[in-house]
Amino acid sequence: MLMDKNVEVFTENLINYGLVEEDVKRSLKYASDLGRGLKMLRTFSQGVTIFGSARLPEDNKYYVIARELGRRLAENGHAVITGGGPGIMEAANRGAFEYGGRSVGLNISLDHEQFPNPYLTDTMEFHYFFSRKVMLVMASKAFVFFPGGFGTMDELSEVLILEQEDKMPKQPIFLYGKSFWRPFYKVWEKKMLTNGLIKAKDMKLVTITDDIRDIIKAANKQGHMKVDENIYDDYYANKR
Hints:
Blueprint: H1 2-16, H2 21-41, E1 47-51, H3 61-75, E2 80-82, H4 88-99, E3 103-108, E4 122-126, H5 129-138, E5 140-145, H6 150-164, E6 173-176, H7 178-193, E7 206-209, H8 212-222, H9 231-239
Parallel strand pairs: 1-2, 1-5, 2-3, 3-4, 5-6, 6-7
Helix pairs in contact: 1-2, 2-5, 3-4, 3-8
């Protein structure tokens, strides 16, 4: 009943803002996606979110490594969180699932290539990209980016700007695959940094590695959060 009352008040406020009916409906859909996601986050301990291409096959070297990383994280008691689809996401979930760990997939409905992989202990499907990205970040205490396309770049950019502008806690960001990521890093250094578009400290937000032991060590250093706790609880409380 309280939730129904809150929705009613929320809707009334939207109307009072002067929103038209279609915008009110759209806002309620946004809130539903976010609300369901936040509820799900409280069912498992914050883990390590792994991003990367949905298009890499099982015999790709990055798939093999992501699968091993998922297993090693599970061995160390960390939940593995991905976008829930194929490719790198499947590989990381698969490694955690095969070990018997927590394997979470935050999926999204797309016209192509995106479907829940079969290695998930927990899954949820989102309608909106933005709400899915919020949950992929809030579910995590560390981030790993494998090679990927526009979607992976979008997710990386989002995490970078949030940490750069202190809109989220500073959490480890790993770029796995030196041969893939170093050219991007050079662009940041030679074009962005040289032209004053970013600061030197921004370059230190990421760690480029070819060794999954670096990632395991960082996750262990972050520690194991209780299921009913979240890094963001204290962070946002201190921001008030």
